[in-house]
Amino acid sequence: MGRRRKDTDQLDPVRRRLLRLVADSRTNLRTASRAMERNPAYLHQFIHRGTPKVLAEDDREALAEHLGCSPDLLRHDRGFSRKTRRKPPVVAPHAAPRGYSAVPEIDVRASAGPGAWNDEFERTKDMWLFADPLIRHEFRAKPEDLQMIAVDGDSMEPLLSSGDRILIDVSRQVPVPPGIFVIWDGMGLVAKRIEHVPHSEPARVVLKSLNPEYDSYERPAEEVRVVGRAVWVSRRL
């Protein structure tokens, strides 16, 4: 309890105000993030990890509508500088050169285990550098929404093999159009092709493994914990 209070006291005024507004509105960070059409961990990362540093205008407006407040309450002044803990700052080796963004890699093993994942990722020390135009135009994503993950297993062969790295956009969690997504299956993070079942009510999806030795199965959409859509793959030849 003491540690949480200390962490909260070190937040800037906007982040502390957001926590109060969420509590007073009888919602939570996960629900509020979804109301912004963001991934469920978005606001938790914004408050406790400083990513992003400030909320974009459209995000402020969507969040303010959900909380029933003015968007100005969620706006940082130009001179904003977030307080940091009293320890030396982490500088390179992960500082991205100008024109590039560093994307973290998820530690799949550390993130695995029954009930172990609750919208938070354990990360390795590895970072991947991508040119900003590539992220913006080819991936059609924002750097803060990207995570790298290693494929574990052969269920998606021949498209994806164990050891391949796939880049996922955690802001894209709706399988329309169909595609390859990373999901939480209760034991770990796995890649599956997900397709929406047309005209299903309530909405249902089909989860497919490309390897014919694995069966496909259908689930209610609300039961599938989608982490993000795969947008790029890296493979050793």
Question: Which characteristics define this entry?
Answer:
single chain; two-stranded antiparallel sheet; 237 residues; seven-stranded antiparallel beta sheet; alpha+beta; disordered N terminus
* Shape summary: globular
Instruction: Tell me the distance between the termini.
Output: 50 Å
Largest beta-sheet characterization? 7 strands, antiparallel
Strand order of the largest sheet: 3-4-9-5-6-7-8
State the helicity in percent bands.
10-25%
Q: Residue ranges: pLDDT <50 for 5 or more in a row?
A: 1-6, 78-93, 114-118
Give the amount of beta strand, in percent: 15-25%
The whole-number mean of residue pLDDT values reads 81
Q: How big is the Rg?
A: 19 Å
Topology of helices and strands:
Blueprint: H1 2-9, H2 13-24, H3 29-35, H4 42-48, H5 57-67, E1 100-106, H6 108-111, E2 123-131, H7 132-138, E3 146-150, E4 165-169, E5 179-184, E6 189-196, E7 204-208, E8 217-220, E9 225-234
Antiparallel strand pairs: 1-2, 3-4, 4-9, 5-6, 5-9, 6-7, 7-8
Q: Could you characterize what this model shows?
A:
It is a single chain. With 237 residues, the chain is of the alpha+beta class. Helix content is 24%, strand content 25%. It is built from 7 helices and 9 strands, in the order H-H-H-H-H-E-H-E-H-E-E-E-E-E-E-E. The chain has helices spanning 2-9, 13-24, 29-35, 42-48, 57-67, 108-111, 132-138, and strands at 100-106, 123-131, 146-150, 165-169, 179-184, 189-196, 204-208, 217-220, 225-234. The protein has a 7-stranded antiparallel sheet, with no helix packed on it. Strand 5 and strand 6 form a beta hairpin. The longest helix has 12 residues, at 13-24. The protein starts with a helix and ends with a strand. Residues 1-6, 78-93 and 114-118 have low confidence and may be disordered.
